[in-house]
Specification:
Oligomer: single chain
Strand content: 15-25%
Largest sheet: 2 strands, antiparallel
Number of helices: 2
Order of helices and strands: HHEE
Mean pLDDT: 85
Radius of gyration: 13 Å
Structural class: alpha+beta
Low-confidence stretches: none
Length: 81
């Protein structure tokens, strides 16, 4: 049986917290994941009216975020090499 949206949200938040806590110096960490997860994360953590709400991540793009405790800050989205 597939997860519902709330279960995915809880699992994603728990995973991000685990990564944050495991990084003692809170250094740079690379996370590779499905575009749907990135889209959800960016949509829920960007300001209202942001173009991020309607743009799906491009294949191979990079999204830069900062995790500060419970807050996720989107620095860059859809960067291509």
């Amino acid at each position: 049986m597939a997860e519902n949206a709330q279960e995915v949200k809880v699992r994603l938040q728990a995973g991000l917290q685990e990564i944050y806590q495991a990084s003692a110096d809170h250094s740079r960490i690379l996370v590779a994941t499905h575009g749907g997860v990135i889209k959800d994360l960016v949509s829920k953590n960007s300001p209202a009216g942001s173009p991020y709400h309607t743009q799906f991540p491009k294949n191979g793009s990079v999204t830069k975020t900062r995790l500060t405790g419970q807050n996720i800050i989107i620095d860059d989205y859809n960067l291509l090499p």
